[in-house]
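ok trying again, last paste got cut off:
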Amino acid sequence: MGDYVNLRFPVILTGLETTTHAPYLAGWHLRIEPELGRLPLRLITTALITAAVFGWIADGCSRSTIKNTLAMLSRIFEQAIADGILEQNPAHITGWQREYQQVEDELRDPRSLALRDWDALTELADALVAASYNRYRGWGDVVVHSACTATRIGEVSGVRARDIDIDKWLLTCRRQTTPAPGGLVDKHTKGRVARLIPIIEPLRPLIIRRLEATRGDPDARLYTGPRGGRISTAVLRDATHWDDVTRDLGYEHLRRHDLRHTGLTWMADAGILPHILKEIAGHRLITTTQRYFHPDVLRILEAGQALTHHLEKLQRDGQITRRW
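nice, full thing came through this time. structure:
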């Protein structure tokens, strides 16, 4: 698929406004090519595309990002039909918008998505490794790292040796470590800066073992699949039989992205202040971060916000003329 698309780019983009080229090309280089680019066009089915879309949603892609990606994918297949390669377009999928509604509903109470403790996390990691081909330990390492650092699976797969500071035990987490050809950057990653995340003590032996495997190469990735490729949510799901494993453990609701919810919930319960947790999580709004705190704490935080709004209203009305 990749060779065909790269050859036919001028025709595929014909008729589009030039302002649309960047998001469409970003969809190709950052999502379609890594997920489906190695497959022949005839082997790409609607089911494969649907699974890829759900993985992108779990990675935090926005609605417009998914829409632009699907539009690019549809144009590729329409051109393949015109070239006589295919007879129908498998990119005409439905139902992915409902997945967003489910995500939004779940995020109203992200605490309910968290694993209960360290033992539950390691049990999940071990079960995923046991269910994988050749019992590849890397799958479990990715899961543990994601939960302990409250990062997305895509971010874990992007971690390089140079991102680890073992003197201070800090991780520099970069949402997108390498731009796509032409410097294309996703809309949902645009403006996101690297953030610092503490590496907790239980995670450090795993980090040391991974660093030793890089043999001093600062650009080496800490986490890759058994064949050296990057790990996506879809790859992790398929390789570990995620759905079967989580169901057997009683976590039918658990998705790969929920590992991040686990880490943020644990940090909130550990007493990390909201404004610090906001920086660790990379949230734009403090209200998003506050959802991870226990309801009793959340009510106290909301009381502080209510007082702030009250004082601001009094000042606007002229009843308060002085700020301290």
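cool. Residues 176-181, 184-192 have pLDDT under 50 and may be disordered. The longest helix spans residues 295-316.
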